[in-house]
Amino acid sequence: xxxxxxxxxxxxxxxxxxxxALDLPPEKPYRALLxxxxxxxxxxxxxxCAVKINRQLILPLGLxxxxxxxxxxxxxxxxxxxxxxxxxxxxxxxxxxAKYYFEAGFDAVTANPFVGWEEGLKPVFEIAHKNGxxxxxxxxxxxxxxxxxxxxxxKDVETGSLAPQYQIxxxxxxxxxxxxxxxxxxxxxxxxxxxxxxxxxxxxxxPGVGPQGGRIEDAVKAGTDYLIVGRSITLAKKPAEVAKxxxxxxxxxxx
Length: 255
Fold this sequence. Notes:
This protein is an alpha/beta fold.
């Protein structure tokens, strides 16, 4: 079973397309950070279909240290794990980065297509797909400055024509057989455009719901497949209640 199949199966079993982003603010001692992450995971796990972790949790806890407790807990709940590492270096380094995360227990990594294929992301895709893991490409991020990079008009090196960078990245997601494409929930029009390009063959993952201004209804109607939700849940006094509300709202909208 590849990553796309794995997360789709979990989403179907749990009747949820919500991915919990355990991107917590810093806390000291770090034991408190670990405890909080585990508490939120325990409280919300029945309402989500996967867990996303980024470096702000891995760095203080250690990939093969305390973070293993979070990874083990998520796996014990049957939840796929996405490492939001945004791989963005030269090929041999990218491959080692991906290898470490996969060995640590992650099922997929995020990567930045700006570095290209040859001696860029090709080694990441090779090691991922060889081991049944996934690679999710950044196509249009959720923050306000995304337009400066992903939205700029550039020359497509394959066709010679001018096009928005995110459209070229969406086509690369198809060509490279990516396991997902990140398009911010804050930009539903971009979600709709990317959906047309990938034709349902590459699932769309949308962060940015809540504090960044993304609306569940807009993202779902535009065509997103999975909503990545962090602070709305992790900073809530009752994370389980909020996770359930978001899951139910997404279901009502049609995801």
